[in-house]
Amino acid sequence: MTDSAPRPLDGRIALVTGASRGIGRECALALAKAGAHVVAIARTQGALEALDDEIRQAGEQAATLAALDIADGGQIDQLCYAIHQRFGRLDVLVHAAAMLGGLSPVAHVDPKAWDRIVAVNLTGTYRLLRSAEPLLKAAPSGRALVFTTGRVARPKAFWGAYGATKAGAEHLVRTWADELENTTVRAALIDPGQMRTKMRAEAMPGEDPETLPHPSEIGPMIVELASAELGQPKEPVSFAAWKAARANASH
Fold it and tell me: How far apart are CA 25 and CA 107, in angstroms?
């Protein structure tokens, strides 16, 4: 850790879901390197420990690791209570956990698979916002950054279960943000676009992943938004648009 490096999130507490791989993992790393203490959630303890090792190797403070299923509302409640007991607040929430659940015609989606996708993508989001709200309100300027998908605005054959649950989650976030208008908490929806992730590879197995942005590229945007003066969410913040604007500004 170097004192000379700019650390915009020094002293902040950041909770990241889906932190064991892909976009969530890179968000957790970026927040830690910006000075935040990261509370990392994922189902796989080993992958969380690997994340923590990388954070430590970068010279940052160890993360707090929580191996749990985002679909288990009771575990989410317990975690947020533990955050309250230890830190008293939550400055940043990054919700990246989601599942594709396979691609299938709507009429062929297995009911058990449907229930699981709803539990993770929609109900899990509701339980997380419900439990995290008091913690975000306790921070000077709580920020919630929730990942969505372009499939909400552009439905496509076989993406029904994923798209519908993400659409529900997006509506929920916008409604929740409107309810918090008179508080210091602000929320933003993030559209990462096509990115080199395991979920993308599952959906598009014939695609060359090297043609897609690496998830680490979104880290600086998340750090920037974590302390930005966010207005009420209207359209999701597009990573592609942010990247293009950043490139234009550098010329």
Answer: 34
